[in-house]
Each structure stands twice: as structure tokens, then as C-alpha cells.
Design goal:
Layout (H helix, E strand, L loop, with lengths): L1 E9 L5 E6 L10 E2 L1 E4 L6 H13 L7 E8 L10 E9 L13 E6 L12 H9 L9 E5 L8
Parallel strand pairs: 1-6, 5-8
Antiparallel strand pairs: 1-4, 2-3, 2-7, 5-6
Length: about 150
């Protein structure tokens, strides 16, 4: 299984957040996504989230809260990789300090309906869920994808 992290860092009032404009993989090229990446062998998801966010944005943010663990059910598909993504959320004024550090461009954007067509399709529900202050964060909720065609959503 390949494991990833993705983080949504909002400003304090939840009206802006940092996203990355993807280059790779090809199917994500040009779309906005959560800031994150692969979890290294032996690394826990929280440590990976802190590391990936700093590597991609230049910002150290240690106060992430878990939102959802999303994974695919690829057990019936020999030619498809099993993966999981741990999504985190945070709120801080420091989001305005995020900048592009690596090849993929970091954007701090206003959260408005016109944002979502520029994003990977699953962000249309992940961002509102992450931003909702009424979601009690005891740990990761889990969501599973059943087939290859849903992996992009």
C-alpha cells in the first residue's frame, strides 16, 4: 500500500486556504489539490504532514487535526495500486506566508464556488468538510473508493 498525506491550512476565519497546483501525476496536472505527498517508510502520518507542508510551502505548522482517511479497495484489481490518503486541517494566520518552494506552485486562495472547477473533484466536498467547525475531530473518518474510475474523484 502506498500512503499519502494532504493538508488544508485555512486562515483563522476559514475564508482562505493554501492549495498546490499539481504537475504530477499527469492526471492531476493543472488542478489544485491539498498540500502533501508520500509518507516515508517508518514515518507516521502526522510527521509526514508537517514535513510535506514545510517542504512545499516553506511554512512550519505543527497543529494539524485529522479529518478523513481515504483509501481505495483495489483487492480485486491486479493492475491497480492500493493507496490511502490521510487528510488534515489547520487554521492559522501563517497561511498567508505560504509560498512556492518546489516545482509545484502554491496558491493561497479565497474559498468561493468558482474555486472548485480548478480543483481535483474530491475537493468540492473535502474542503467544506475540513472547514466545518461543527465536525468533531476525534480521529480519522474513513472513506473507501471501490474502483479505478473513482480514484480521480
Amino acid at each position: 500500500m502506498i500512503s499519502y498525506v494532504g493538508g488544508f491550512l485555512f486562515n483563522v476565519d476559514g475564508t482562505r486556504l493554501a492549495l498546490v497546483q499539481k504537475i504530477k501525476p499527469d492526471w492531476q496536472n493543472g488542478f489544485l489539490n491539498a498540500v502533501g505527498g508520500k509518507i516515508e517508510i517508518g514515518e507516521d502520518p502526522m510527521a509526514a504532514m508537517i514535513r510535506e507542508f514545510r517542504e512545499e510551502t516553506g511554512v512550519y505548522y505543527p497543529d494539524w487535526k485529522p479529518v478523513v482517511r481515504m483509501h481505495n479497495d483495489a483487492s480485486h484489481q491486479e493492475d491497480y495500486h492500493h493507496y490511502e490518503v490521510f487528510f488534515y486541517v489547520g487554521h492559522s494566520h501563517i497561511v498567508e506566508s505560504c509560498c512556492t518552494v518546489e516545482a509545484e506552485t502554491i496558491h493561497v486562495v479565497d474559498i468561493k464556488p468558482e474555486l472548485y472547477p480548478r480543483c481535483l473533484s474530491n475537493l468540492a466536498w473535502l474542503i467544506p468538510m475540513a472547514a466545518d467547525p461543527n465536525v468533531i475531530r476525534y480521529g480519522f473518518s474513513q472513506i473507501a473508493y471501490k474502483d479505478r474510475s473513482s480514484a480521480r474523484t
